[in-house]
Specification:
It is a single chain. The chain has one domain. 74% of the residues lie in helices and 0% in strands. The chain contains five helices and no strands. It has helices at residues 3-16, 22-30, 37-40, 42-50, 57-79. The longest helix is centred in the C-terminal third of the chain and has 23 residues, at 57-79.
């Protein structure tokens, strides 16, 4: 699944569930991450646990895009 598709599915689920606040959307997305994405996005988990603000959905999406770009590059390098 591509990043845009995954983010769209999360947004659709949140909308259907009445989750409209960015913090809640981000937390919803975080519950669906597994390693290595979980490890990369750990700063968000840490902020939630300490009660810090976790920013906007747009910032989360951008940060996650950085991770997926790095991960795709890493996988390409492994294949070669």
């Amino acid at each position: 699944m591509y990043l845009h598709d995954w983010l769209s599915q999360i947004a659709l689920y949140c909308s259907a569930s009445g989750i409209i606040v960015d913090d809640q959307k981000i937390m919803c997305a975080l519950t669906r991450l597994h390693a290595p994405a979980y490890t990369y996005m750990k700063s968000y988990y840490d902020k939630v646990q300490t009660g810090q603000g976790i920013g906007s959905w747009g910032n989360f999406s951008q940060e996650f895009k950085i991770f997926t770009d790095k991960e795709m590059t890493r996988r390409e390098q492994r294949r070669n």
